[in-house]
C-alpha cells in the first residue's frame, strides 16, 4: 500500500474543461470521492470548468466516458467509483473490465482518463480511500488530472501535431 499521495502539481491556467464520471453505487463513499476531487481541482485548476455526470454503478462508467470522448472531448476525464468485494467474483469481474476499458479509451482517444474506480475488501478500506485524508483517491485523481493536463499542454507546445494528424484525430 502506498502511504502517501503524490505531491500537488503546479496550478493549471484557464480554459480547461474536466469531466468527472462517477458511479452512485456505495453512495456514502462515491459522494466523498467526488467532493474530494472537486475540492482539489478547485485548488489546482482554479479557473477551470468541471462537469459531473453520475451513473448507476462502476460497470456503467466506461460507456459514459466513451460517449463524452466521442461528443466533445474535455482536457481530461476522471472516472470515480467504489466496488466492495462481495461473496462472488462479480466485483472482480466488474473492476477488471472497467480497468481495461478505461485504458483503451484513453489510448484510443489520446486524452487522459484518470482511473479511480476502486476495488476494496471492506468499508474500512473504503473509508480510508474515499473519506480519510491521507490516502484520499479523490484528491489523488485531481492531482493526476492536473499533472496530465500540464504534461499534454507542454507536449502540444514542444511537439505540435501536424495537420494530417489533426485530421486523423478529429475523424
Ligand atoms: N457491487 C457494486 C456494483 N455493482 C453494480 C454494477 O456496477 C452494475 O451497475 C450492475 O452490474 C448493472 O450493470 N457497482 C459498484 O459501483 N460498486 C459495487 O460494489
Ligand atoms: C460487486 C457487486 O456487484 C456485489 O454487490 C456482488 O456481491 P456478491 O458477490 O456477494 O453477489
Provide the fold topology.
Elements (H helix, E strand, L loop, with lengths): L16 E7 L3 H18 L4 E7 L5 H11 L4 E9 L5 H20 L3 E8 L2 H8 L6 H22 L4 H8 L1
Parallel strand pairs: 1-2, 1-3, 3-4
Can you walk me through this structure?
The active site is at residue 90. (2S)-2-hydroxy-3-oxobutyl phosphate binds at residues 87-88, 129. Keywords: Riboflavin biosynthesis, Transferase. With 171 residues, the protein is α/β, with parallel strands linked by helices. It has a single domain (17-170), classed as Rossmann fold (3-Layer(aba) Sandwich), CATH 3.40.50.960. The protein is built from six helices and four strands, in the order βαβαβαβααα. Strands 2-1-3-4 form a four-stranded parallel sheet, sandwiched between helices. Helix 1 links the parallel strand 1 and strand 2 (49-55). Helix 1 crosses helix 5. The longest helix is centred in the last third of the chain and has 22 residues, at 137-158. The model is unreliable at 167-171 (pLDDT under 50). Bound molecules: the ligand Nc1c(NC[C@H](O)[C@H](O)[C@H](O)CO)[nH]c(=O)[nH]c1=O and the ligand CC(=O)[C@@H](O)COP(=O)(O)O. Ligand LTPLIIQW binds next to helix 3.
The top-level CATH class is: Alpha Beta
Question: What does the main sheet amount to?
Answer: 4 strands, parallel
Total domain modules = 1
Please name the CATH topology: Rossmann fold
Estimate the strand proportion: 15-25%
Q: What is the CATH architecture assignment?
A: 3-Layer(aba) Sandwich
The secondary-structure element order is EHEHEHEHHH
Amino acid at each position: 500500500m502506498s502511504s502517501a499521495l503524490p505531491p500537488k502539481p503546479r496550478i493549471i491556467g484557464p480554459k480547461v474543461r474536466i469531466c468527472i464520471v462517477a458511479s452512485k453505487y456505495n453512495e456514502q463513499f462515491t459522494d466523498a470521492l467526488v467532493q474530494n476531487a472537486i475540492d482539489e481541482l478547485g485548488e489546482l485548476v482554479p479557473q477551470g470548468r468541471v462537469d459531473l455526470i453520475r451513473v448507476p454503478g462502476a460497470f456503467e462508467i466506461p460507456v459514459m466516458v466513451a460517449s463524452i470522448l466521442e461528443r466533445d472531448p474535455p482536457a481530461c476525464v476522471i472516472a470515480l467509483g467504489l466496488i466492495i468485494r462481495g461473496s462472488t467474483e462479480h466485483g472482480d469481474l466488474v473492476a477488471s473490465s472497467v480497468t481495461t476499458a478505461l485504458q483503451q479509451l484513453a489510448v484510443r482517444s489520446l486524452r487522459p482518463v484518470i482511473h479511480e474506480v476502486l476495488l476494496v475488501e471492506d468499508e474500512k478500506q473504503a473509508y480510508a480511500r474515499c473519506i480519510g485524508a491521507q490516502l484520499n483517491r479523490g484528491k489523488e485523481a485531481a492531482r493526476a488530472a492536473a499533472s496530465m493536463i500540464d504534461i499534454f499542454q507542454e507536449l502540444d507546445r514542444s511537439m505540435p501535431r501536424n495537420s494530417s494528424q489533426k485530421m486523423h484525430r478529429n475523424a
